Amino acid sequence: MTVALGLAACGEPEAAAEPLPDDATIEQLYEAAKKEGEVVIYGPTQDQYAGVYEKFEKDYPGVTVTEVDIFGTELDSRLDAETAAGGPDVDLIQEGVADVARRAQDGLFAAYLPTTPADIPAERIGEDDRWVVVSRGLYGPIYNTDKVAAEEAPTTWDDLTDEKWSGRVGTSDPAQPGGTTQSLAAAFDAEAIDEGWLSDLNDRVAPRNYPSIAAVVQAVVTGEIDLGLVASYGTVVQKQNEGAPIAFQALEDGSFMLDFGMGVVDGSPHPNAGRLLASWLLSDAGQAAIAEVTYEFGSMPDAPLPPGAEALGEINSLPYPGVGREQEVIELIADTFK
After folding, report:
1. How is residue 46 annotated by DSSP?
2. Is 28 exposed, middle or buried (0-12, 13-18, 19+ CB in 10 A)?
3. Is-same-fold flag (13-135+258-298; 137-257+311-336)?
4. Which burial class, exposed, middle or buried, applies to 222 when counting CB atoms under 10 A from its CB (0-12, 13-18, 19+)?
């Protein structure tokens, strides 16, 4: 597998191959993909997908996956540079649904809906078939198991505002869009929290502010804070595998489930290889690989659970309510925590 860790300078764009018709079979896509030889994918946490792509390469020899772990303004700048140079160097982009929906509206993605599998749930398909959800990340509170007993961990959103957590909680910047604000927006939309809850969190708990969720996770691992709000289940399990004293807590009144969408870039250099990988990720083999390697949840109805997820019990998942609702919550947060 070829893993792109840095940002290579943009060179002369290669002539793009022609995509097969949308009803092409997997076998036809594979034959075309072998001629292209490679598929390039951009997105956050792509380094965690390396093991998934190794399984794809075993299923489809002759097609190499090059993943670039990139997101936010850095990804925006790279895409702008590629466009200015004459065309995209990337075939697929995988991000949270808010970002892929924005890129679809900007015209980045070609309309493509895999014909295999045929039972993709309608709620996992983006507008005009411009993207599909391939995996889902569960977000909730995390805690240091050396400092918080399992029976003491919060089980509801209201538990998070208990005065016992004063000075013991950390959060990524709740006024900046991301997993934390999306979680709060989902909880607001489900009426699990309200403005009074925000005030209680600020007045009773006064959480420490960290620049990112990754920084919150590290602070919990080191014991700098006892409880983090919030992080993904997959990240926590990976830290547990490294021996870190950390645990994830699903909430009875709802935990945010972030859908990760994937779009096929219009005019990409390896269009058939991109379509092949997107289709494989939705197959039984692809969904199993996602769960096994990344500890994310699949998007297909019969997708297997990630290892250890059975211990979380029945998950009350809260969907993302949209960019508009998230922005409303960010403004409420800014007013409360000013």
Report:
1. G
2. middle
3. yes
4. exposed
| pLDDT attached to residue 15 | 55
Of 14 and 87, more confident: 87
Q: Specify the CATH number of the domain 13-135+258-298.
A: 3.40.190.10
Residues β-bridged to residue 265 = 109
CA distances from 151 to 75, 251, 310 (A): 42, 13, 18
Q: 115-139: buried (b, 16+ CB within 10 Å) or exposed (e) per residue?
A: eeeeebeeebbbeebbbbbbbbbbb
- H helices of the chain, in order, are 26-36, 50-59, 72-84, 97-105, 179-189, 195-200, 213-222, 233-241, 271-282, 284-294, 323-336
Fold of 137-257+311-336: D-Maltodextrin-Binding Protein; domain 2 (3.40.190)
* pLDDT value at 8 more than 50: no
The pLDDT tens digits for 27-61 are: 999 999 999 999 999 999 899 999 999 999 999 99
Query: Rounded distance, CA 273 to CA 100, Å?
Result: 20
Residue 215, token pair as written in the block:
């920084």
Cα–Cα distance, 25 to 236 (Å, whole number): 38
Among 179, 173, 163, 214, residue whose Cα is nearest residue 334: 173
Contacts of 279 (CB under 8 A, 6+ apart): 26, 29, 114, 115, 116, 117
DSSP assignment letter at 71: -
Residue ranges covered by each domain of the chain: 13-135+258-298, 137-257+311-336
